[in-house]
Amino acid sequence: MIGLILAIILFNAIAFTTNKRLTPNQIVHIWAFTIAFQALVDLYIAGKLDGYWYFSKAIDWESIPILTIVIPPVNMIFLNGYPFGQFLYKRVIYVFCWTIAITLYEAISSLPEPWGYFHHGWWKLWYSLSIYPFLLMIVVGYYKWIRKIEK
């Protein structure tokens, strides 16, 4: 639980103090999209397939802060620094660095309590490493769509 509380404070502080790109409307959209998308993914991988879980295998109240106030600010930080309009290699390097960072955070959150809260079933860390670039690009695509709608 200590690791979760520290992550909430750290990620939200960074997201809201360093934001220079995202408008309040975009923040709300990214926040809602992240919660919905993460809940959908967790419904199948965690709930149905027991691939991983937070705290316990049961659906519990302790997992709600992870979905609602840990992951959304991470996507804000990611989008705030994303090199839109830069060469492809810069965008690839940016996503690669974020993939490594998020995977390392997942490994840290897998530590025993009180520091960790994430547990792997059959899901392996390298599965996350291979899927994170796609998930990050989905967030970029959603952000671009929101910007297009706003115009």
Topology:
Blueprint: H1 2-18, H2 24-48, E1 52-54, H3 64-81, H4 88-109, E2 118-120, H5 125-150
Antiparallel strand pairs: 1-2
Helix pairs in contact: 1-3, 2-3, 2-5, 4-5
- Main sheet: strand order: 1-2
Summarize the main sheet.
2 strands, antiparallel
- Strand-and-helix sequence, N→C? HHEHHEH
Principal-axis shape equals: globular
Q: How many strands?
A: 2
Instruction: Determine the mean pLDDT.
Output: 94
Helix content: over 70%
Strand content: under 5%
Low-confidence stretches: none
Our Rg estimate from Cα atoms comes to: 15 Å
What is the end-to-end distance? 42 Å
Structural class: mainly alpha
Total number of helical segments? 5
From the structure above, extract its key features.
single chain, 151 residues, mainly alpha, two-stranded antiparallel ribbon, 5 helices
What can you tell me about this protein's structure?
Helix 1 packs parallel to helix 3, helix 2 (24-48) crosses helix 3 (64-81) and helix 2 runs antiparallel to helix 5 (125-150). The protein is mainly alpha-helical. It has five helices and two strands. The model has no long low-confidence stretch (mean pLDDT 94). The protein is 72% helix and 4% strand. The protein starts with a helix and ends with a helix. The protein has helices at residues 2-18, 24-48, 64-81, 88-109, 125-150; strands at residues 52-54, 118-120.
